[in-house]
Design brief:
Distance between the termini: 130 Å
Radius of gyration: 50 Å
Number of strands: 12
Number of helices: 3
Structural class: alpha+beta
């Protein structure tokens, strides 16, 4: 019985395994079917590739496109807001950076527009100094007016941003692109105090252009009333209106020779003193002083560029 039972058990297991094999063979597609599907796929691909718009599968593709196209479009419309969220955050950050850059650029442009007139005027003043150096034949140290104010007993002075380090010393002539400004009173290493010719203590030797008669030009002590008075040495000479007055100084004096001072506007006669007094309108606008030039000897050592007598910068 044991042998029979054992043999029966073994036979049963063999039958079960053979049964599983038969199930697997029934579920597995025939090899010929797989080969046929592969060949059909290759054939369709070949026909579609060489056929173009005349492909035999084009009608089927069109039908499928018309059937599934609306479904795909609807699905894309539904999921698009979700897929676009990361891109929206990235775009928003980029736009914020661009807006900040544009605002900064706009601010710079506004600043340039606001200062364009100022820069243009300053450039014209520097060009004027170059021309003045050539016409007067004197080297100039350019400087800027940084303060108005009084100095001890003098009431009309300005401070410029150049001093002894720039080669400037006392009693040097100061001009701008229009004419005579004044003379240097005192200097520090980096600044200098300039006495304006409109000060009452200022006395400048002047020469009338048409007659070459000499006299003395004196200020009235006010920027608001910046007219000057000219008294000629020869009381019998009457200056003509619109005559130009220039300095008649020397190379050693506080005022160099030939610097334009102003123009005669009126002439008054004093019967009591038997003298003539001419009113001069200065060429320089003293309420708008900015860029000036200090006359220095050629070859002066300076901590800044010097305009030489020929107009070249050194």
């Amino acid at each position: 019985m044991a042998g029979f039972g054992g043999g029966g058990a073994t036979g049963g297991r063999e039958r079960r395994w053979r049964g599983m094999d038969r199930l697997d063979s029934r579920n597995r597609p025939p090899r010929s079917l797989l080969v046929a599907l592969v060949l059909a796929s290759v054939t369709l691909i070949t026909l579609d590739f060489h056929g173009g718009t005349d492909s035999p599968v084009e009608p089927a593709r069109r039908v499928l496109g018309e059937a599934f196209g609306p479904v795909e479009a609807g699905t894309a419309a539904v999921i698009r807001p979700f897929t676009a969220v990361p891109s929206w955050f990235r775009t928003k950050g980029t736009l914020s950076d661009e807006i900040r850059d544009l605002e900064a650029e706009n601010s710079d442009l506004k600043s340039q527009v606001a200062t364009a007139g100022f820069d243009k005027n300053r450039l014209e003043e520097y060009d004027g100094l170059t021309q003045s150096a050539e016409s007067l034949g004197r080297a100039l140290v350019p400087a800027r007016v940084v303060a108005y104010g009084s100095s001890q007993s003098f009431s009309n002075t300005v401070t410029i941003d150049a001093g002894s380090q720039a080669g400037i010393g006392p009693d040097m002539t100061v001009i701008n692109n229009d004419g005579l400004v004044g003379r240097v009173l005192r200097v520090t290493r980096t600044t200098a105090t300039v006495l304006l010719i409109i000060d009452q203590e200022s006395n400048v030797g002047g020469r009338v252009g048409s007659s070459l008669e000499v006299g003395f030009v004196q200020g009235r002590g006010s920027v608001a009333d910046d007219e000057l008075d000219l008294r000629l040495v020869d009381d019998a000479v009457i200056p003509a209106k619109h005559d130009t007055v220039v300095t008649w100084g020397s190379a050693e004096g506080p005022y160099q020779r030939g610097v334009p001072v102003g123009r005669v506007t009126d002439v008054y006669s004093s019967l009591i003193e038997s003298s003539q007094r001419a009113v001069i309108e200065p060429f320089v606008n003293f309420s708008a002083l900015d860029v000036v030039g200090v006359m220095v000897p050629t070859g002066t050592t300076s901590d800044r560029a010097v305009i030489e007598a020929d107009g070249a910068m050194r």
